[in-house]
Amino acid sequence: MKMPGEVIREGELEKRSDSLFQFWKKKLVVLTKDSLSLFPDGHKRARGKELGFHSILKVDCVERTGKYIYFTIVTTDRKEIDFRCPDQSCWNASITMALIDFQNKRAIQDFKSRQELEQAAASRAAGPAAGDQRSQAGELATRSASV
């Protein structure tokens, strides 16, 4: 699995299993500007799971106890993945800030792309008509000069 970009933070989180008994399993977590990667048993050598920020909708802080912060990552297909971290580790805040940064950069890129498309469409629409007007003005200037 590739981990694009610079590592923002690396450490341990607990993920609630999807099984019937819903045990908390420790995961090695690597946070980058583009994704959150989860590795089983605390080893990067093992095959991990990458949650790209393009597929994450939001991070919800569910509960704060004296010992843990419980939070949920909601994906764009509405899947919920539950995590917990020690209260002082602030993993939920780190993930939230990286996600917001990613979403802001993507929104700016989308805006610029939309602006470029609109400008290109406007110049195509004005292009032939503007060219015809310039050639007509040139013909008039030539006729005036010859008279």
Structure, explained:
This protein is α+β, with helices and mostly antiparallel strands. The chain has a single domain (about 5-125), classed as Roll (PH-domain like). About 40% of the residues lie in helices and about 35% in strands. The chain has one helix at about 90-145, and strands spanning about 5-15, 25-30, 35-40, 50, 55-65, 70-75, 80-85. Strands 4-3-2-1-7-6-5 form a seven-stranded antiparallel β-sheet, with helices on one face. Belongs to the PHLDA2 family. One of its GO terms (biological process) is regulation of embryonic development.
Topology:
Elements: E1 7-16, E2 24-32, E3 35-40, E4 49-52, E5 56-64, E6 68-75, E7 80-86, H1 91-146
The rounded Rg comes to 27 Å
> What shape does the CA trace take?
elongated
CATH class: Mainly Beta
Helix-and-strand structural type: alpha+beta
Strand sequence of the main sheet, in spatial order? 4-3-2-1-7-6-5
Please name the fourth-level CATH homologous superfamily. Answer: Pleckstrin-homology domain (PH domain)/Phosphotyrosine-binding domain (PTB)
* Helix amount: 25-40%
Instruction: Specify the biggest β-sheet.
Output: 7 strands, antiparallel
